[in-house]
Write a structure and sequence with these properties.
Shape of chain A: flat
Number of helices of chain A: 5
Largest sheet of chain B: none
Oligomer: heterodimer
Distance between the termini of chain A: 58 Å
Shape of chain B: elongated
Chain lengths: 125, 342
């Protein structure tokens, strides 16, 4: 259960911790500020990626590991990214709202719902 | 020429590789589904997603991740008491995380935001109100048949029991009941019969799709007679969601014995397009994440079980459990913005 190769890397874990806390606050701030939806999504996901990189690099010590990390993680990353890309043409572009048969029967009700929500959203801003 | 890390660490990283694919399957599918679903529910009134609770949980996991990494450092420095202390904090924070998640889940359950339970259109919302009223009627009627107040060949058939309930005030007391007990049932039967009538009236209007307030009775014979009297091409006014809201609100606010029960058991009609797929995505992602938190707690629990006899033999264990815990944190780092903010 043990080995002798526990190198101590001089990482200021507390600084990483504060960076992560700051990033979380930033995510909430982006949500509170009224910005265009697309901008909020990009900013919030960028912050999430920065947080993930901090955790992987410093808490999981990937910054100090050898090249084996690429060999191990590249295939899983390729497959992980590949799945949404593979699904996108079928589901992402036309889920049941546009083409499926039940939409014909629902069209009025869905339109009514979206009108109500558009009015409510408009009122909120 | 092998990979220059211990076998246990290699095993953990290979396992984490499979975990990355496991979670990205969910997260990737969720992103794609959302992109393809114009009108995905995002308002708090629809989803009951609480950003503050999600934010607190994010903070809790970040603190716990910090504690794990410090615990591992302490193990490497052979400061086992310090390592144990930080692992205790991590485990307690994991409990806090699950507690907050439990509060969030309860909020969803209380509002019936569950996969397969959310009406996506006005007509589904109206049917749901009728279904929930029917559940109440069945429950109330069951009390009479179960206690022997009413004897029926088919106790589950509420339509045949209703006339017996209506006649209960003039019925003879069954020998198994005392006078006071029977009187209590007789008094309650007035409201219960009215509840049956209200439910039946709503159901008939839904089936006939005619206005609750403009077409007084939707009993098949009445409805058909009215329809026949219409000029050719004309139709009776259709049932609207707003009418069902008003009808239910009247049942909830009027002064009668069943108002409280209806208030707590029948939800206001609230159609939510893509509500079910939203609920499925939310529960599957946060649910599997919570399972991973529990597994992490077990891993740390095994270290803490060693108590003061914790020694350097457990250093790899703490490191590998730490890697696992950071991964759990990593998943939440993406779930938080995707589910709570965007």
């Amino acid at each position: 259960m043990s080995h002798d190769d526990h190198q101590t890397h001089h990482v200021n874990y507390l600084a990483v911790f504060f960076v992560l806390c700051g990033c979380t606050g930033l995510s909430v701030l982006f949500d509170v500020l009224s910005m265009p939806k697309g901008v909020t999504i990009v900013l919030v996901l960028a912050v999430a990626c920065a947080k993930a990189m901090s955790v992987m690099m410093y808490f999981m010590h990937l910054k100090f590991e050898g090249n084996w990390k690429y060999v191990l993680l590249a295939p899983t990353t390729i497959l992980a990214v590949g799945l949404p890309i593979a699904l996108f043409p079928d589901i992402g572009r036309s889920y049941y709202i546009n083409a499926a048969p039940q939409v014909t029967a629902w069209a009025d009700e869905v339109a009514e719902y979206e009108r109500e929500h558009a009015a409510a959203d408009g009122g909120a801003h | 020429m092998g990979i220059p890390i211990p076998n246990s660490k290699l095993g953990m990283w290979l396992f984490l590789g499979t975990e990355i694919m496991f979670f990205t399957a969910f997260i990737g599918s969720y992103i794609v589904l959302r992109l393809g679903s114009n009108g995905w529910p995002t308002r708090y009134e629809d989803t009951h997603i609480n950003v503050l609770l999600g934010g607190i949980n994010t903070f809790v996991l970040i603190v716990s991740s910090y504690c794990v990494v410090v615990a591992h450092e302490a193990m490497a420095q052979k400061n086992f008491a310090r390592a144990r202390g930080y692992l205790w904090v991590t485990t307690i924070l994991a409990f806090v995380f699950l507690g907050i998640k439990g509060v969030e889940y309860k909020g969803k359950i209380d509002h019936d935001i569950l996969p397969g339970r959310i009406p996506e259109t006005s007509s589904q919302a109206m049917v749901k109100v009728a279904d929930q009223l029917e559940e109440l009627v069945r429950e109330r009627f069951h009390a009479y048949t179960h206690a022997g107040v009413i004897t029926a060949e088919r106790p589950a058939d509420v339509v045949t029991i209703a006339p017996l309930l209506q006649a209960l005030s003039t019925a003879e007391r069954p020998s198994a009941l005392t006078d006071s007990e029977f009187k209590r049932y007789q008094e309650a039967s007035v409201a219960d019969y009215e509840l049956f009538q209200k439910w039946m009236n709503l159901k008939q209007h839904i089936v006939a799709d005619v206005s609750l307030y403009e077409v007084e009775s939707a009993l098949p014979a009445d409805y058909l007679a009215k329809r026949d009297a219409l000029p050719e091409g004309a139709r009776l006014p259709a049932l609207k969601l707003e009418e069902v809201r008003r009808y239910l609100n009247d049942l909830k606010t009027r002064d009668w014995p069943l108002a409280g029960l209806i208030n707590s058991r029948v939800f206001d009609p609230h159609p939510m397009v893509y509500g079910n797929i939203f609920a499925s995505c939310y529960f599957i992602m946060t649910g599997f994440h919570a399972i991973h938190v529990i597994v992490g707690m077990i891993l740390f629990g095994m270290v803490l079980k060693q108590g003061s006899s914790l020694n350097e033999r457990w250093t790899d264990w703490v490191e590998n459990s730490g890697l696992y815990w950071h991964f759990v944190d990593l998943v939440w780092i993406f779930l938080f913005p995707l589910l709570y903010i965007i």
